[in-house]
Amino acid sequence: MLRGGVGGGREKHIRTIAMASGKGGVGKTNIVANLAIAMKKLGHEVLILDADLGLSNIDVLLHLAPKYNMQNVLNGEMGLADIIVEGPNGIKILPASSGVQELTVLDEFQRLKLLDEFESFNSNVDVMLIDTAAGISENVAFFCIAAQEIIILATPEPTAMTDAYALMKVLYTRYQEKEFSVLVNNVQGEEEGREVFKRLATAADKFLNVSLDYLGYIPYDAAVPAAVRQQRAFLEVNPAGKASKKVTDLAYKLMSRTKHRVKGSLQFFIGNLLSATSEENV
Q1: Best CA proximity match to 232, nearest among 241, 223, 240
Q2: Which helix (H) or strand (E) holds 108?
Q3: Which domains does the chain have, with CATH numbers?
Q4: In terms of Cα–Cα distance, which of 200, 252, 198 is closest to 35?
Q5: In sequence order, which residues have a C-beta less than 8 Å from that of residue 54 and are 6 or more positions away?
Q6: How open is the CA angle 265-267-272, to the nearest 5 degrees?
Q7: pTM of this prediction?
Q8: Using CA atoms, how far apart are residues 212 and 204, in angstroms rounded to an integer?
Q9: What's the CA gap between 102 and 233, in Å, rounded?
Q10: Over the stretch 10-47, which tens digit does the pLDDT of each residue have?
Q11: How far from the centroid of its chain's Cα atoms is residue 272's Cα?
């Protein structure tokens, strides 16, 4: 189990935050990568779990070339600690595999293998950000319900809002998840961000018994696509840009707020992974 280094062997409390979207192409992986860097700049040790196990994105986005990935772990060839790569500013990344279709839906053996690996994983980490795959697959639900906090990323596009709602509906009706934070990406400003949240909240209030928390918005910033083309984090390319400032504010807000679903340490993440495995077999 993941613990703090010293201090009398006390278990370290690790924040586990899943970022999900329902729809692809909304900037989820980019936000996760830059949020990790912003948290690291605030003094926190951050680990990204690329949970899009069959179509890795984090390593491509940040121009990394991991020699090993999650496929090597699930095949029993090595442990989690063996595949970690270091990204910008010292963030740590557990890379996924690329183009491996069978990993898009984990079977029971693979899930139990993942549980075993997290049980024995030792690292000095304050927060683990989970970059889920797009859509409403079992893998997405698996990692969302295991995390302490779920952030739903949406954009003003109607399809993105529809798919964000669909994901929350699945997590509520099938797994009884009732608390979600909403982050709106690629908007013109505060008003548009709140309008997207309002639409999601209205639908959720009418049809679902869930609680939505508005985390804020990330504005459109020409520096973002420019950084993507360079395969660099926009926080590094243009730290004074509009998007960079908002991501930094978001990192501070997430790490300083006291009202979050603290379920314990990564041991609780492991326990929830086990619960997810059991529920899928019912």
Answers
A1: 223
A2: helix 108-120
A3: 15-274 (3.40.50.300)
A4: 252
A5: 96, 97, 98, 99, 100, 101, 102, 103, 104, 133
A6: 110
A7: 0.87
A8: 8
A9: 30
A10: 455 678 899 999 888 999 999 999 999 999 999 999 99
A11: 16
